[in-house]
Design goal:
Catalyzes the synthesis of alpha-ribazole-5'-phosphate from nicotinate mononucleotide (NAMN) and 5,6-dimethylbenzimidazole (DMB). The protein has 336 residues and is α/β, with parallel strands linked by helices. It contains 13 helices and six strands. The longest helix has 21 residues. It is globular and about 70 Å long.
C-alpha cells in the first residue's frame, strides 16, 4: 500500500525546493493516496446536480419563490446556468437528477434522470421534512449515481444542488450536527433581506427546538426531519464515493452539510473529500471545521450548483500533472 511518507518522498525528489508549490502539493498527495498511485488521474470526471423543492419556502425564508427551482433545472439542462458553463469549461460531465422538485417529469436521458421521492419536502417549520424511509430512499439514489459514475470511468466526482429554500435545511442540519447556536449557521442564502433573514432564524430555531424536545435518539430520523431530498441524495453520493475510494470535490454550504451527514453515517468518508472553497454563508465555516477540511478557495461565493467544485477542477489537473510529469533531480541529472 502506497503510504504518505512514500508520496512525500516522491514530491521532495521533484525538481523544486521541498514544499515550494504550497497547497498544490497537498492536493497532489491526497490524489496519490486516495488513488494509490504516484500518477493520479483527474479525467474523466463527473458532477451530479441533485434537485428538489422544500415545503419550508411557504414560511417566507427565501428571496425566491419555489417556482424558480423548475426554471433553473431547465436553465441547467439547456446549458445557460453557471454550473453548465463551468462544467463545459472544465470538461466535467454534468448530470442532473430530480429527486423531489415540483416540476413535471421530463424524459430521462444521459444527462437527466427523474426519480422524485415526492413533490417537495414537507414544511420543516411545522412537521418533519421527510420520513426516515424517504431519507433512505434519497440516499440510495445518490449512491446509485456515484456507483454508475465510477463504473463508467469517472476518476473524480463532485455533487451540487438546486432547490429554493435549501439553505434553511442546511442551517438546521449544521446546528444539529455541529451543536452550535443557530445564529452561527444562518446567512442570507440566495439574497435574503433582513426581514427574510429574521424569519429564517425563527423557523430554524423552531425546527431545532422540536427535534430536541421530540427526538427519540435516532440520529437518522433527526437528520431526515430537517433534510432535503437533494441533500440526502448528495450524502448517499458521498458515502458511495468513499466506499469506492474515489476522490470527491465538495462544493459550498449545502453540499458540505451533505458531506457531514456522510461522515456521521459512514466514518472515514472525509478522507476522500477535497473542500473546493469556503462560501460567504457563515455556516459553511462551521461545517468545514467539523469535517477538518481546509478549503482551496475563499472567494465569497454562495451560488451552489456545484460551481465552486467545478472551479477547482483545473487545480486538480495541475496537481496530478506535477506528480506524473515533473522530472526528478535524478532524472534531470541535478545533484543536491
Amino acid at each position: 500500500m502506497l503510504n504518505i511518507k512514500e508520496i512525500q518522498t516522491h514530491l521532495d525528489n521533484l525538481t523544486k525546493p521541498p514544499g515550494s508549490l504550497g497547497r498544490l502539493e497537498e492536493v497532489a498527495a491526497k490524489l496519490c493516496f486516495c488513488q494509490q498511485t504516484l500518477k493520479p488521474q483527474t479525467r474523466p470526471r463527473q458532477i451530479v446536480l441533485f434537485a428538489a423543492d422544500h415545503g419550508v419556502v411557504e414560511e417566507g425564508v427565501s428571496a425566491w419563490p419555489a417556482e424558480v427551482t423548475e426554471l433553473m433545472i431547465d436553465n441547467i439542462l439547456s446549458g445557460g446556468a453557471a454550473s453548465s458553463v463551468l462544467a463545459k469549461t472544465t470538461q466535467t460531465q454534468l448530470k442532473l437528477v430530480d429527486v423531489g422538485s415540483l416540476c413535471q417529469n421530463k424524459k430521462d436521458s444521459k444527462f437527466y434522470r427523474c426519480v422524485q421521492i415526492a413533490k417537495g419536502t414537507a414544511n420543516l417549520a411545522k412537521v418533519p421534512a421527510m420520513t426516515k424511509e424517504q431519507f433512505e430512499k434519497s440516499m440510495q439514489i445518490g449512491k446509485e449515481e456515484a456507483e454508475n459514475a465510477v463504473k463508467n470511468g469517472a476518476k473524480i466526482l463532485a455533487a451540487g444542488e438546486m432547490g429554493i429554500g435549501n439553505t434553511t435545511a442546511a442551517s438546521c442540519l449544521s446546528a444539529i450536527l455541529c451543536d452550535v447556536p443557530v445564529e452561527n449557521v444562518i446567512g442570507p442564502g440566495a439574497g435574503a433581506d433582513d426581514k427574510i433573514l429574521s424569519r429564517k432564524i425563527q423557523v430554524v430555531c423552531s425546527a431545532i427546538k422540536r427535534i430536541r424536545t421530540q427526538s427519540n435518539g435516532n440520529l437518522a430520523e433527526d437528520i431526515a426531519s430537517v433534510c432535503g431530498f437533494e441533500i440526502a441524495a448528495m450524502a448517499g453520493f458521498y458515502i458511495k464515493a468513499a466506499e469506492l475510494k474515489t476522490v470527491m470535490v465538495i462544493d459550498g454550504f449545502i453540499s458540505t452539510a451533505a458531506a457531514l451527514i456522510a461522515e456521521v453515517l459512514f466514518k472515514g468518508s472525509r478522507d476522500y473529500m477535497i473542500a473546493s472553497h469556503c462560501s460567504a454563508e457563515p455556516g459553511h465555516k462551521v461545517l468545514l471545521k467539523k469535517l477538518q477540511l481546509k478549503p482551496l478557495l475563499d472567494w465569497s461565493m454562495r451560488l451552489g450548483e456545484g460551481t465552486g467544485a467545478l472551479l477547482v477542477m483545473p487545480l486538480l489537473d495541475s496537481a496530478a500533472d506535477v506528480m506524473a510529469k515533473m522530472a526528478t533531480f535524478e532524472s534531470a541529472g541535478i545533484k543536491r
